[in-house]
Write the structure tokens for this entry.
Amino acid sequence: MALETCRTAATDYLDFLAAWVKKPRQTASVVPSSRYLAQLMVRGLDPADGRVMELGGGTGVFTRAILATGLPAEKLEVVEINPGFARSLRRHFPRASILEVPAQSVSSHAAGERGSYQMVVSGLPLLAMDKSLHIAILSEAFAMLRPGGSFVQFTYSVRPPVSKTILDMLDLDVSRVGHTVRNFPPATVFRFTRRSE
Ligand SMILES: C[S@@+](CC[C@H](N)C(=O)[O-])C[C@H]1O[C@@H](n2cnc3c(N)ncnc32)[C@H](O)[C@@H]1O
């Protein structure tokens, strides 16, 4: 690993740990996700197929993987509620749009039109959130997604982090994208789509 990459990784780890000490439930992990998990999260993203939204950008591991697909930075919006992470995301990804707002109200802040996004990549700690927040976040995300668009979410459990009752209520299907042990802790990625599509 090059010296500069090493330094960035070390800073990311320290920033993450500091955020976790301050707000453990909101940060939900003591370390950022790995690049192996990031690669699973962006599987199926087509860089030529329109806007992408990322929820819970943190130190930017998924942001980097999204842009590495070749998606133009202007087509990416990253939602991050922690002001320190939001500041650092703006510094590292100046051409992407960083929205310092809660994911559950993103539709009033996004630059793209409702129903125009191909994918929402979520690093949010859904397991640490209650059911009403799951409903609010998924409803907002699907309001932004176009027909056929998908909401991609990782979890440290082997089961989807959203209950069947909520999936039925919102008319959503879920499928497993993959699992990686090259992450701490090991993680599984799920894709949520509208049932009628
Ligand atoms: C588990 S960390 C994941 C960070 C990064 N995506 C990664 O995988 O390393 C969760 C992130 O979601 C952010 N977050 C938590 N609740 C949020 C909310 N309601 N709206 C926006 N961001 C939120 C936290 O500040 C944190 O950066």
User: Anything to note?
Assistant: The mean pLDDT is 94. The pocket of S-adenosylmethionine is lined by residues 26-29, 32-33, 55-58, 61-62, 79-82, 85, 102-104, 123-125 (CB under 6 Å).
